[in-house]
Amino acid sequence: MSKNLYDAAVLQLRGRALEALATVELLLKNPTAVPDHSNWVDEIIKHTKVLAENENTMITLQQYFGKQFAPPPPAPGTLLPGAPAPQPGEPLTITPERSPTLRKELARQKRLEAMKARQTMAKKELYPETEEKTERGRIQEEAPISQEG
Fold first, then answer.
1. Is the pLDDT assigned to residue 14 strictly greater than 60?
2. DSSP label at 146?
3. What does the angle CA 102 – CA 106 – CA 109 come to, to the nearest 5 degrees?
4. How far apart are CA 113 and CA 107, in angstroms?
């Protein structure tokens, strides 16, 4: 089987399945779309069977023949598009451009820092430090602790 025939068969099955799906959705949303108003349920069942048949046929075709025509998976260590290529002999370093996980973690850390800064500012605004409190703190620090025994 050639790749063109395989692709044509899969696309035709997918098209028929999508057509049946659209018809079922239309019947469920607007039952008056059926000219004969007495067999709404029969029409829904008929098109659902067409949908299931085409989907199952497509899955079976992909299961048995899809591996022959599937593009090869990217080699391990393949860079993301736009990432700078490493020089030969140079160890591969993890950068945000090369690692989506690192990008997400850096964004999460940035959000946490911003949240902590907002909380600190809100606390300072709610409880501003007065001169009296700071003066008391200095006096208590300077005063020796006496122990009577």
1. yes
2. P
3. 140
4. 10
Amino acid at 72: P
Q: What does each C-alpha distance from 3 to 24, 54, 71, 113, 130 come to in angstroms?
A: 32, 20, 11, 53, 79
Q: Which amino acid is at 73?
A: P
For tokens 């075709």, name the residue.
Answer: 61
User: What does the pLDDT look like over 114-142, one tens digit per residue?
Assistant: 999 888 888 777 776 666 665 666 666 55
Please state, in angstroms and rounded to a whole number, the distance separating the CA atoms of residues 109 and 132: 37
DSSP secondary structure, 48-102, as one string: HHHHHHHHHHHHHHHHHHHHHHSPPPPPTTPPPTTPPPPPTTSPPPP-TTT-HHH
Contacts of 69 (CB under 8 A, 6+ apart): 3, 6, 7
Distances (CA, A) of 142 to 17, 137, 139: 84, 9, 5
CA 38 – CA 47 distance, rounded (Å) = 16
pLDDT per position as a tens digit, 78-98: 555 666 666 677 677 778 787
